[in-house]
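Quality-control log, excerpt.
Job 1 of 2 completed; input and output follow.
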Amino acid sequence: MLTRVSDQPAYLLHRRDWQNTSLILDLLTCDFGRVSLLVKGGKKSRSKAFYEPFTRLSVSWTGRHELKTLVDIDGVRLPVAEHQYLSLLYINELISVFLPAHEPSLELFELYGLLLQRIDHKESDLREFEKKLMSILGYLPDTQVEARSRMPIDANEHYQFLACDGFIMCSKAIKNTIDGASIIAWNEKNYESPVVMQMAKAVMRCIIDFNLHGKKLKSRTIYRQIQNHF
């Protein structure tokens, strides 16, 4: 059945070339989740300024198949600082990888919009977005309780983290344990301690890598190349 959608709020996640003159845009939309649109002649289009990340878009499309065809596009470029591009491209890749096509999530759409509106977001904003994204999509275990007993995290105990289970109480003598106080601080969005920030990064990396099933994120590779260059 031919479908037509008009004036759908969206953000560009990724753009790629298609044949000689066209483009495919991967979008996060308000009502339709992640969709891909073919832009015929997009490389030479007068609207190509809108085919860039970090632009708040209004798009219209039509089509019978999974890959729809762009009919109209308009947008407003958001004031994202250049030094934030890489971390936001990483977020875009996470959404592209983990959000199933055509699965709407108004909560995720609004969360992403708020992240882009932060003129100078901090690393804690990135960690919180990772956590909320994994929670929305069902990949985050309950971080408030011990996985086996279901008792609340105890500030005086130590834990290990397993991606498929959550925090498991263990002896302090075991390597790479996490103290309960840091877990509680993380759940309270308190990133003042470097230990909490390091723990949050390690836990989210564990969850993401476990659910990538061996796939590699391109944004991480680019980041390592930049770090090695300098």
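Job 2 of 2 completed; input and output follow.
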Amino acid sequence: MTAARLKKGAIGPIGLAALAIGILSPALGLYALWPPIQAQTGPIAPLVYLCAMLVALPTAISYAVLNAEAPSAGAGSTWLWRALSPSAGYLLGLTMTTYLVMGAIAQPLLFGLFAQDLMTFVGWPVGGRTVMIASIIVATAPVVLITRRGADTSVRTAVVLMLIESAIVVALSITILYVKGSQPGGVQFEPFNPMQATGGAVGFWGALVIGVLGFAGFDVVSTAAEEADAPRRQIPVATLLTVLGVGVFWILNSWVYTLAVSPAVVQEYTTQGMTAVTPMARLYWGPGNLLIILTAFTGVTAIYISSVIAASRLIFALARHGLLPPPLATLHPVHRVPSRAMRWVFGIVVAASAVTVGVLGNGVAGFLWWSNAMVFFLTLTFAGVNLANILYFARVARRRFRWSVNFVLPVVGLLVNAGLLYEAFFKTLWVADLSSGRSVIIFCVALLGFWVLCVAAVGRLLPQRLAGEPPMEAEDTTI
């Protein structure tokens, strides 16, 4: 029997770029990250974004060279399966799926936070928990309708949302430059001067961790390999252009935002647990700052769409190979999308979001809890891909091994991800309280342990499932 396959050619080069850019979200990468970056290290946010982009590049290059050699919807799972062992590849597939599902869980919670801002804007006082619960449904419903109609519809929507949010960000920057340009010394390049840092080395490294995490998710473009026109050529280009393009976008706009308000103002809002972007926009646009809130909604939706697309494709591919329950490999008869896998993802997202709000009591705590959990599985996934780069070209594609991109850069990527795992996860969270810190570590380590047991059980009880070629490949003969 022929294995069920996704719709070939459903995603072109623009769609691939939109899928990757959508999950990074040019707007939310500024709204959510610029204030804490500046609060930690002072008015050098664009310099931090620049360093974060340079830190993310080694892993992005590992993805690019491996996709050029062997494009696969399973990405690191497939490459590690062939280069190290099927068990290692299977475990990395579960790890990657986990971080993408966690990324999806965080989106309704983030949607709820901006919904609360909207309620405040219109003067309609509603209980925070009520807004959060309602937002879970409001944020999820349109994503369900969009993603079930196929990858082509999903990426078209992501393109539109990306253009809207990017246009608003740029419009605000142009307004700020126009106003500051009429003031003596209003436009200057001190934010790129490391001597302007006020947080010292500790503040800089803490801000850099935040900046690097902003690039989390660029790898989702790899999961579209089976639906891409020419994945061997298009996915590497989309991967590198996403990291470089979004990085430059953040560098330039964070420079303007840093000119707009004093570091003390940003610090004050950040300390209060509020974003400094909305009040900053009010200074320059007045009531037009409503556009910032609305843009945040489009950014959340784009990330939600990209996360569901990526997670469901991985679940589908693993199930198709018998490594997850076989019913999850069911495709929609018309749109050729993994409909049952998507329903499971949405079910997990809604349930986890609702439980989080009920247990932790507010959206901020819930969003941070799942974001921190995602850090653990994200860094493990990226470390696995860098390891796969080294082993794949050393053992499978020896003739094309190059020391620079198949050893030096992935080693740098491994070291960077190990540092992030230690600094941003274990070191930071273990000293926090149980509900927001140590509980995340305990949950993530326990879940990883469960996945290890699952892999071991399959290897012992169903060894044939770990035999042969990996479950996630892309048919592409394009050179």
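Post-run check on job 2. The mean pLDDT is 82.
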